[in-house]
Write a structure and sequence with these properties.
Layout: E1 9-13, H1 19-26, E2 34-38, E3 59-65, H2 71-74, H3 77-91, E4 99-102, E5 106-109, E6 112-123, E7 129-138, H4 168-189, H5 191-200, E8 208-212, E9 217-225, E10 231-235, E11 238-242, E12 246-248
Parallel strand pairs: 1-2
Antiparallel strand pairs: 2-3, 3-7, 4-5, 5-6, 6-7, 8-9, 8-12, 9-10, 10-11
Helix pairs in contact: 3-4, 3-5, 4-5
Length: about 250
Amino acid sequence: MAAWPQGVGRRVLAQTDSTMAEAARMARELAGPEWVLALDQTVARGRRGRPWSMPAGNFAASLTLQPQGPVDQVALRSFVAALALRDAVLAVGCAAERLSLKWPNDVLLDGGKLAGILLESLGDGRGGVSHLIIGIGVNLAAAPSPSEVEAYALPPVALADIGIATSPEKFLDVLALAFAAREESLATYGFGPTRTEWLSHAARLGEVITARLPNEAITGTFRDVDETGNLILETPKGRRPIAAAEIFF
């Protein structure tokens, strides 16, 4: 197996403010996709601008892509990234039955949050997307303190908690190969196979969950993810597609 995917850049920094910010600064200078890994982040952030705690030894990287195709297909990379993350965690020694995927962008270990994914795009000035930045954080060495996460959030967990030790650089090598393979599948076969496999690993599929939107909370049975990546909840008022929300179990 190749040590690194062909045509993909690799940059490792001792420290930066955030890999998402670093990726955005360098995006328009890139000739192709590129990963940037930081061993320390001073202003790390997660979804909706929330702080992201990064104990020493944890993984923080961002991948910059120049996506092709319709704008509404760009965000499907969250499913690609989730499956690639699962592949990488399996590759460093985790048992498959311990892992599940939480819509839209978390990887769970024994029901706790192991990893998170953040997508941001840069416009091309014509209503399209010129660059997609995929930020990934993984608790390799240590999980943040429960006091550092939101109330009702899933408890954070780390690979080290179950006796798996790996470095951020080694994990990047494994993840980059996994992502390249998953991205090739999306480009070749469309979203169908990615969607099917993601659903086969989905946390709480068929169970009652709550989706919290800015102005309402919707509780229903998690039935599906549709062809555009929407979560499908079955509620007393019928099926409800959810494009973006905070999900609570």
